[in-house]
Amino acid sequence: MTMHHPALEAGRRRTFAPNLWDALAFGLLFGGLILMVHGGKETLAPLAALDLAPVSLDPAMLPEYALRTTMRMLAAIVASLVFTFAYGALAAKSRRAEMVLVPMLDILQSVPVLGFLSFTVVGFMSLFPGRVLGVELAAIFAIFTSQAWNMTFSFYQSLKTVPRDLDEATRSFRLTGWQRFWRLEVPFSMPGLVWNTMMSMSGGWFFVVASEAISVGDTTITLPGVGSYVALAIKEQNLAAVGWAVLAMLAVILLYDQLLFRPLVAWADKFRVETSAGGPAPRSWLLSAARRTFLFQRVLQPLGAMLAAVPRQRLSFSAPVSQDTRRVVESAWTSRWAEGIWLALVFTVAGYALYVIVAFVATELSLPEVIRVFGLGVLTMLRVIVLIALATLIWVPIGVWIGLRPRWAQRVQPLAQFLAAFPANIIFPFAVVAIVRLGLDPDIWLSPLMVLGTQWYILFNVVAGASAFPNDLKEAASTFRIRGWNWWRKVMLPGIFPYYVTGAITASGGSWNASIVAEVASWGDTTLRAHGVGAYIADATAAGDYPRIVLGVAVMSIFVIFFNRLLWRPMFTFAGRRLRLD
Amino acid sequence: MAVIDRAAPRPATEGAFLVNASGVRQVYAKGDNADLVVLDDVSLTIREGEVVGLLGRSGSGKSTLLRIISGLVKPTSGRVEWRGKPVTGPSEGLSMVFQSFALFPWLTVLENVEVGLEAIGVPAAERRRRAIEAIDLIGLDGFESAYPKELSGGMRQRVGFARALVVHPRLMLMDEPFSALDVLTAETLRTDLIDLWIEGRLPIKSILMVTHNIEEAVLMCDRILIFSSNPGRVAAEIRIELPHPRSRLDPVFRAIVDDIYGRMTQRTPAEKEARKGEGALPGTGIGMALPHISTNLISGLMEALAAPPYGGKADLPDLAGTLQMEVDELFPIVETLQLMRFAELEAGDVTLTEAGRRFVDLDVDARKRLFAEHLLAYVPLAGLIRRVLDERPSHKAPFTRFSEELEDYMSEDFAENTLRALITWGRYGELFGYDEHTRQFNLENPT
Fold first, then answer.
1. Where is the ABC transporter domain (chain B) (predicted)?
2. Does A187 sit within 8 Å of B106, measured CB to CB?
């Protein structure tokens, strides 16, 4: 019997002529490959190479520095993804692992990213003595810590909320664990994961810049990159060079967005579990171009087929033991005793860890010092509160105004997202110069730097909220002539509140992190110092004083945890329960 | 058209046993107190060549039974055998069609259909051929590269059927496969499926379907098991000998439907004694689980009953047809009326009581007063809430005060639902108020 079928014949009808899109795609692909090889080669060089070719302020070097910085970002994203899949899956699948892993993730999320850097740089350097790779890894790890946690949370949440019917479908069709993971779990978590990766990425630029010029105690390493370029410019008081760095960063972020994230978001749209098509689908010129290519598609087809074969494998792991043995092991594993042993183990390890921390900090530090650091924590917290409040007062009305005007919103939205991604620490020097010249009080005037980069989260979330505000409610408000303060209080503010809270949580988390670089700022030989736990950590890091680093980071983490639990989480729950519009 | 190995349906008394379940009991433990019994001592057999329907109201455990047979859920006790071997997990040779379709939104129609074949490791070329055969069979040609979200509900469920058929299962399980579809689409799909079945073109031996739609069951099944609720038991087994295609207008068909309606509203003598006047709602006294029915539905049904052509008394299938409601939607309302003594239910007939007739004639305020009176008199929980509020000096009581007491008798979800129903009814009758913000009952009445 001959088969005539459109799906089978689709492959035969094609012509082989390459088209314009092919040319474009080839250019992008091979250009990218060459750049990657170039960037990767440098990381294997011995450490001494860094001294031989010190960072130079020549703007012509910036493209290369930008490339190195971008490579670090890419490496970190890959590491974060691997971590996410492993950690998230483990936490979601094993109840016992979940007991430990989820609270741990919550704490990890609250630890300031730059705090990790202070700890880990020495460790990574001794892993690869005398190689640039060690330092590179430390920088990559810093970026990793700014991304991995919330990506993992997102993945874990998705795994826990896989729709029951899809779960039953995979089970009743007897898909193996491997097939299930790639056919159901990963696709289902894709939209959340892509969105969180994008958000993490925009935070990541800040930390990659901060981590390239690392100095812990006597160890000072400057990795070639935009961050160290800026650090050098600050040391040499070269404002023009800072300007060049800003331009380079703008270009890099723009390219990243257009070449990586736009296509990714547009592609991930198909993974949304929505039965009806709602709203315009996200688009990307690059993805459309790649989909329209002929030759390129054909060349990539084997690769695509190979990738597509991965989820189809029936891999399943089972030990070669008999049914009976398995049953015995299983019943032992799920017994009350195993539960007790596990709990005892967890508590013992936790108790021991606590003892280690206290012992380590107590070797050098006294109680008054601890109290003093808590005082500094309060100062930093005041800054965060006041600045978030100020940013709210400014950006909420503006955001609402923009959001209600779709034409404006369309243009401002990408700009705000872009500004949120821009590493604010690159433009700190401009502010520091101003403070020095005008002789302002650093305790007050250094503070705004903390929200410089994070305030945009509030803006773009509020814009999104106001744009999504239902039209019928707007019309109802205007037919009933609700105006002025009443309009804000009864109509608009409740409508945008869930969005605002989302933005404010991100902004406040970012501000705590930024305090480590914002509370101490220098310009040439002048160093401005504000009082706060951020400055305390920065100073301890510069001095290589580990007990103080631990103390500072621990205190800041405690503040962040309480801040989240007592303020943001209740607000978030309230917003979710009472003010949802759907 | 592709032709798949024919399996002409044989009389069900001859075919080999596929499923043999006996004494199946499913209990959901809920902590310290009484467990929730979903299924109690259920036995059934399925032979090759028959279409069996599990008919019952929501909460009768019929979907749970389907999942137990498929191996997705492990029963608390009882034996389930699939082709003579005990079921330990999802078995080979079974496939399932879901109420919600359960298609992977990120896979095309073709890929969705292929998923089941990937799981059993069918080589790519063979997989493609069989998937396309199934797609053709079920009338989806031309939609292979579409994503589910581009399709209408009916087309999506066709994909669900194709996906279930492509693995050539011996038994196809269907969990309310047509209830998420509109009336017309559902009817088309039903007749298409039955046509394929009687022509012997489906690559399956038997079908087991769960439904709460009586006519659907009579239209499609050779054998119907009627489930009673709380706990789920097989209340009756009916064999339908009508030849296909069956017509809904056939007097014999109508008689069977009427008979089933009667059986589903009938109570055993023991039940009658225990729950005199309390309807078929599970539990007694304060521990009665109440359905969350809006007061608009309650008064709406009373008005419909009082109006012509019924004039106070209606045949349930007829009423359901007129109101375009399904058993699942209609029964809880009727039972609420029965509970509050606004109506009586006997052998498939519902009759308004004296109070029910009076209610219909009253104006809004008087209706509320009468409703409140009956609520206090016949729903013990309403009396309890009112008494507690009266006794407390603050005249306030938290939600948890009552939900915790209810959880001694029922699951958390049922307790929540029951209290939500009480809040709605209490607000309507102005017996008490409730503040969602503080989750507190109160006696305040904004006037």
1. 19-254
2. yes
